[in-house]
Write a structure and sequence with these properties.
- The chain is mainly beta and 303 residues long.
- The chain has a single domain, classed as TolB, C-terminal domain (Neuraminidase, 6 Propeller).
- Helices cover 0% and strands 51% of the residues.
- It has no helices and 31 strands.
- The strands form nine sheets. Strands 20, 21, 22, 23 and 24 form a five-stranded antiparallel beta sheet that branches. The protein has a four-stranded antiparallel beta sheet with strand order 1-31-30-29, with no helix packed on it.
Length: 303
Amino acid sequence: MPEFTQITDGLQFPEGPIWRPDGSLLLVEIQRGTLTRVDKDGRKEVVAECGGGPNGAAFGPDGKVYVCNNGGFEWHQIGELLLPGNQPAGYIGGRIQRVDIQSGVVDDLYTECDGNPLRGPNDIVFDSQGGFWFTDLGKSRPRERDRTGIFYALADGSSIREMAFPMDGGPNGIGLSPEEDRLYVAETYTGRVIFFELDGPGQIRANPVSRHGGYLLAGLSGGEMLDSLAVDALGNVCVGTIVNGGITVFSPKGEHHHVATGDALTTNICFGGPGLETAFITLSSTGRLVSCPWETPGLPLHF
């Protein structure tokens, strides 16, 4: 286990970290419903009130932050651990939100695709052309859960397309290879990483024998579930891992190893610092943000 430095605690289920050149980070607090800034010294400041359940987040080409809002969860406190649950009574519906971090104004950019409501948008990545891919994990109810997939949309609100359906394994983390010729998706319920071959921005070259057009990169066999991901400069896919809490690192060929963190709900990772050689990791069930030196530099994100 690497040596972790705690940056702050007391967060209400943090996810979606974004490192900024001034050393601060933006992240969401899902239970609190906010986009929050965490300074280098650990001080926290609410940037915007998103409501519902803000999840994955990324800067877009206009300098605004685009947030996947899952609509909210029921919450369960088990000892010192905070855990998300089913669709709540106050569910607001899934949506993609655009946040002006200077004013705190939040706009709903997309709430549906082709007449089908977004259910639980989860994670997001922008490509070099300024379009973005996002996953919809859906919502769970006591006896059922949604069938969902992945989408490609434009930041100006003019276009959203469903690109892969159904992904019954629970599409969660999403990221692009350094060459942008592969799109990686981590599935929560199956503990698998799927990849899609791309012909260009928003263009999948589908696997003809797959229901959703993707290929299996690798899967875990110990009952683990997968959450959000980040890609490093070598093309490795670093995925937040639930149950066996940590980050699982998958090579482009599917080999993998595990970096333990000690939090069963290790959900997100991003890279920052000089040379992008530091990992920033959300330990969500205990409300902490930590950092550690990482084994490889991160892949710079667009915008």
